[in-house]
Each structure stands twice: as structure tokens, then as C-alpha cells.
From TrEMBL:
Domain Pyridine nucleotide-disulphide oxidoreductase dimerisation: 347-456
EC number annotated for this UniProt entry: 1.8.1.4
Organism in which the protein naturally occurs: Candidatus Walczuchella monophlebidarum
Leading EC class: oxidoreductase
Pfam family, one: Pyr_redox_dim
Residues annotated as catalytic: H445
Cofactor: FAD
GO molecular function: dihydrolipoyl dehydrogenase (NADH) activity; flavin adenine dinucleotide binding
Catalytic activity: N(6)-[(R)-dihydrolipoyl]-L-lysyl-[protein] + NAD(+) = N(6)-[(R)-lipoyl]-L-lysyl-[protein] + NADH + H(+)
Span of domain FAD/NAD(P)-binding: 4-328
This protein's name: Dihydrolipoyl dehydrogenase
Keyword Transmembrane helix found: no
An annotated GO BP: 2-oxoglutarate metabolic process
Length: 467
């Protein structure tokens, strides 16, 4: 019988990276993907298309508002939204084809269809033409990811009341867009369409946007996005959203009891995501999920079935593609007899707005809650020559360090290229660096990263050079 050493259900970043690593280590590997293209939510309808459109919209915004100050003069600037979407689709296609190439290169068997367990060593694959195929395996990794959540009174009709999937494939730019949820997805898509001209409103139940991030970053981001024209209603809960086919009526109530109503062309429901576990037929192998559908795992990411592992969004925690990748590699290397590790404390979070937001480690609120004595240093991006040269003045870099040892505990930044600059902080923290260590390292001048050194100087001896 054709038995695989490892089968992986789901071809998102966690799944396909695990498959490649398994093949590198000599495992006979197969991957099962429900849809016709590889790459999962991230590459097809999530991370990649959203960042592609965010980049395109930023180019448009710069042409409208910023090029003139650089002496670049354009007349009659117009926007071809269909062309923008066409480019996004092409980027997605090329990337997904790249994953297909990597599967072939590494001799990984690919099965398209919905995988469901029959036993602890057999899985049945139902293809879209309703034919069935059965394969056997020694070990399995569940990497089926997640899908958008909603509420009973917020039924996503995929027409006017939409999820992030539909928001990234609209045929028109909304004149009015209401977003329910002020987390990463809502903020990024809200930024995208605001730049393209939509009247954008964000309704958030919490008293701040991106509430999991450091409070100072949350406040600064809200200030910048408000300046861009996005309207925010915080501490507000949506009670209903009804579509008449052409527009949506949204009713909401503030925590103080005030009733609000909104009329919008589209409503984006961005209230989180839930795990894709329903079609796996887990009951057949005695594997129980939590009340929210997550698969419980131990510190080896092993389920209650000893030969079946789970990674990424299906096990809970921060739903980030790079975490799923690390977990996939972790499981495979563990199966090969190695001793891998994952440092969840140093997993970065990034918001691809303009300016970008990037954080790693503890927030100030977490340090206070845990009664850890700390010191803080902050440096504004506008104080750098490099930021003035390019016009990216918004934001700051903040470093939190242990008050006694000076070890860096958290770094929070908002500013141009933060998604790249955060890596300096991660590497420093991985090696238990102190704020003084960062302050004593020479940084190129002029550069954005000088702000990291200045923040470290502010943390160490309260002696930044340029403020």
C-alpha cells in the first residue's frame, strides 16, 4: 500500500512550509488542499492580496498628495480600479504558482479536495467532482487555518455585508464603507479604501483600536488614521445590519446608551476569525475540539491522537502566518528526531497601514500587570534627517527594558518601514540584548533605523542625541 510518512491538510504558509521541510528531511510527504490553488487563505484571499492593494493605494495617495512637494507634477490623475485589481490577481496567481513549483521540486504529492479522517492512519479526500480517494499515513499535520467570524445578527451575505475575502475583490470602490471591528483586518482594509476615496467608518466595541497592542501605539495610530479621514466610534456595539440590496442600514449603541445609525454601500464584518475544523471528521478518531472549534495540543503541538499534530490558526493564539510557518517546521523537525524550539514571546505583530506598525515582546500594560519594574525610552520619527528627506514624519519607536538589568523586554514602533525594522529588535531580544547593547551599535546615517538607537539611548541613560 502507498503509505506516506507525513500528510498535511491545508496548503497555507504553515502547511506548505511544513511539507517542504519534511521533504528536505527525507519524509515521503503529501499535502491536501480543499481549493484548486495552493497557498491557503494567506496567499489567496488574505495577507498577500491585501498588502498588494495597500501598496497600490499608497502609490495613488502619494501621487495625489505628496508628489508635488517633491517637484513631481502630474496632471489629471485618475484611478483604474479594475487594473489595480487585475494586478493584485496576477501577483496572487504568480505566488500560488510558485508554491506549486516548490511542491513539484520537492517531490511532494498534492491532492485537491476536502480531507476527512477515516481512522488514525487513513484519510478520505473528496474532490470537487464528488469522487473519493483514500490515502494512508504514519503522521499527519492539521493546518486548515481559519475563516472570518460573524455574529447571528450580522449575517455575511457576500454582497453588501461582506468579509475580508469579498472586500479584497470588490468590483467598485465604495462611496461609503462601514467596518465592524477595529482590529488589524478592519484597520488595514479601512486604510486601503480610505486612500481610494471611500468615506470610511470604523465601529469598535473596545475603547481603542488594535487593543492587543501597546496603548501608546494604539493611540498614535488612531490619531494618524483620523487625520487621514477615517471616522472612529469606539466603545460601541453593533446591534443589527440590514441590507436592501443597494445599501446597508447599521444600528449601534454606545456603552453610555446612545443609539446610532449608519447608512453604507458596504459593511465589512471584521470581528475575528474561527478555526476550520468542521470538515475534518475528527470525531471518527476520537479527537475533540474546544467549544470554539480549536484543537488542543501539547507543547509538541501533538493532539490527543499521538500521530496527529495541529498548527497555526486551528490551535488558537495569535493567528499569524509566520507563527504557523514556525510551528510547521517545529513539528517536522521534532518528528525527525531533532530538538527544535519556538519562542512565542518574540513573534512580531505588524499592521501594514501607512505608516506601518510593528511590535514584539511585552507591552507596557503587560509589564504593569505582571508587576515587572521597567524603564521606557521613546524617540519620534520626525526628528530624523532620513524621515524629513522622504516626508515620512509620523510615528515613534519605543523600547521597554528591565529597570535593573536593562534587558530589552518589548519594542513598539509606528513609522515607515516598521515591518522591516522590527527585525533588529527581534534579533537583539533573541540574544537577550540590553538597551545599552543596541545604543552602542553603529547605525547607518541617514537611515530610519537610527530611531531605534535613539530610543535605546533614551531608555538607557535618557540621552537621545537628536531631541
Amino acid at each position: 500500500m502507498n503509505i506516506y510518512d507525513l500528510i498535511i491538510i491545508g496548503s497555507g504558509p504553515g502547511g506548505y512550509v511544513a511539507a517542504i521541510r519534511a521533504a528536505q528531511l527525507g519524509f515521503k510527504t503529501a499535502i491536501i488542499e480543499k481549493y484548486s490553488t495552493l497557498g491557503g487563505t494567506c496567499l489567496n484571499v488574505g495577507c498577500l492580496p491585501s498588502k498588494t492593494l495597500l501598496d497600490s493605494s499608497e502609490y495613488y495617495q502619494n501621487a495625489l498628495k505628496n508628489f508635488l512637494s517633491h517637484g513631481i507634477i502630474y496632471k489629471d490623475i485618475s484611478l483604474d480600479f479594475s487594473k489595480m485589481m487585475e494586478r493584485k490577481n496576477q501577483v496572487v496567481f504568480q505566488t500560488c504558482e510558485g508554491i506549486k513549483y516548490l511542491m513539484n521540486k520537492n517531490k511532494i504529492s498534492v491532492y485537491h479536495g476536502t480531507g476527512g479522517f477515516k481512522t488514525k492512519n487513513k484519510i478520505e479526500i473528496k474532490s470537487q467532482d464528488r469522487t473519493y480517494k483514500e490515502i494512508s499515513f504514519r503522521n499527519a499535520i492539521i493546518a486548515t487555518g481559519s475563516k472570518p467570524s460573524s455574529f447571528p445578527y450580522l449575517r455575511i451575505d457576500k454582497n453588501r455585508i461582506i468579509s475580508s475575502t469579498e472586500a479584497l475583490s470588490l468590483k467598485e470602490i465604495p462611496n461609503r464603507l462601514v467596518i465592524i471591528g477595529g482590529g488589524v483586518i478592519g484597520i488595514e482594509i479601512g486604510s486601503l479604501y480610505r486612500r481610494l476615496g471611500s468615506e470610511t467608518t470604523v465601529i469598535e466595541f473596545s475603547d481603542r483600536i488594535v487593543p492587543f497592542m501597546d496603548l501608546s501605539v494604539s493611540r498614535e495610530l488612531k490619531k494618524i488614521l483620523t487625520k487621514s479621514g477615517i471616522k472612529f466610534y469606539l466603545s460601541t456595539s453593533v446591534t443589527s445590519a440590514e441590507s436592501n440590496g443597494k445599501e446597508v442600514i447599521v444600528l449601534a449603541k454606545t456603552k453610555s446608551g446612545e443609539s446610532l445609525s449608519f447608512v453604507s454601500d458596504y459593511v465589512l464584518v471584521a470581528v475575528g476569525r474561527k478555526p476550520n475544523t468542521k470538515e475534518l471528521q475528527l470525531a471518527k478518531i476520537g479527537l475533540k475540539t474546544t467549544s470554539k472549534g480549536f484543537i488542543p495540543v501539547n507543547n509538541r503541538l501533538q493532539s490527543t491522537c499521538e500521530n496527529i499534530y495541529a498548527i497555526g490558526d486551528v490551535i488558537g493564539g495569535a493567528m499569524l502566518a509566520h507563527i504557523a510557518e514556525e510551528e510547521g517546521i517545529f513539528v517536522v523537525e521534532h518528528l525527525s528526531g531533532q530538538n527544535p524550539h519556538i519562542n512565542y514571546e518574540l513573534m512580531p505583530s505588524v499592521i501594514y497601514t501607512s505608516p506601518e506598525v510593528a511590535t514584539v515582546g511585552k507591552t507596557e500594560e503587560q509589564l504593569k500587570t505582571n508587576k515587572i519594574l521597567y524603564k521606557s525610552g521613546q524617540f519620534p520619527m520626525r526628528a530624523l534627517g532620513r524621515t524629513r528627506a522622504c516626508g515620512n514624519l509620523d510615528g515613534f519607536i519605543k523600547i521597554l527594558a528591565d529597570k535593573n538589568t536593562d534587558q530589552v523586554l518589548g519594542v513598539h514602533m509606528i513609522g515607515a518601514r516598521a515591518s522591516d525594522m522590527i527585525m533588529e529588535a527581534i534579533i537583539a531580544m533573541e540574544f537577550s540584548a540590553s538597551a545599552e547593547d543596541i545604543a552602542r551599535i553603529s547605525h547607518p546615517h541617514p537611515s530610519f533605523t537610527e530611531a531605534i538607537r535613539e530610543a535605546a539611548l533614551a531608555t538607557t541613560e535618557n540621552r537621545p542625541i537628536h531631541i
